[in-house]
Write a structure and sequence with these properties.
Blueprint: H1 2-8, H2 13-48, H3 54-68, E1 72-76, H4 82-87, E2 93-98, H5 101-114, E3 119-123, E4 136-142, H6 151-160, E5 162-173, H7 180-185, H8 194-203, E6 207-208, E7 212-214, E8 221-227, H9 231-254
Parallel strand pairs: 1-2, 1-4, 2-3, 4-5
Antiparallel strand pairs: 5-8, 6-8, 7-8
Helix pairs in contact: 2-5, 6-8
Length: 255
Amino acid sequence: MRHLVEACGEADRTIALDLQRLAAIKRQRAEIAAAYFCENAARWDHIRSLYVDEREVEAALDEIIAAAQPHDLLDIGTGTGRMLEILGPYVGRALGIDQSREMLALARVNLERAGLANGTVRLGDMYQLPLPDAAFDAIVIHQVLHYAERPADAIAEAARVLRSEGILIVVDFAPHTLEFLREEQAHRRLGFADREVADWCRAAGLDPAPARHLAGDPLTVVIWTAYRRDPAGQAQIRRRSTGRRVARSEEVLLG
């Protein structure tokens, strides 16, 4: 669209009117975002005070994505688009999916403010993503699963759109007993055990890695990662490993 605007020039009356309307929409979105954050800031601050500093979580995610070097990234349940803001600079394309139009409006404002040209958001259901199979190198599900009725199904759907050798990153709470989160914040689950998440990943055809625990008081944030392994690549690794073992055996026999 930017190329079309540049080609036609802002002197075109239709384009000039469209740009005026676009500016009005952006102002409206910014006003809605400011009102929403003002209304909910106290609630978010209270929840965040119960666990480790979010900057520590984001730093850990930066480290994981930087090591994985994905070309593109999908953020399921993107909310305000925060994961796109911090991880988008590492990839060529970043997409956020959310089923809340209000949250998507906030995310668009935040991405524009951050100047993230490669980041976009769209409406979608985490149980039925509007995406083809094997579409992304990295997928993030950040503080979403505790709202899910069927967390195992959400992981299975994420695995469907993950490419071979891609990485799934799930961030959520370890098991806890803060029942008020069910009543006041609509949490469906009071955290997840490592084995539980690992089993869901294996059932979805992924290979789970050791979890990373970031202890807070009283909530502990856990980062689970899992990979879509390429069978051919694994076969090559096994062959190389077997070859090295044979070579070492020959060295022992030959003295």
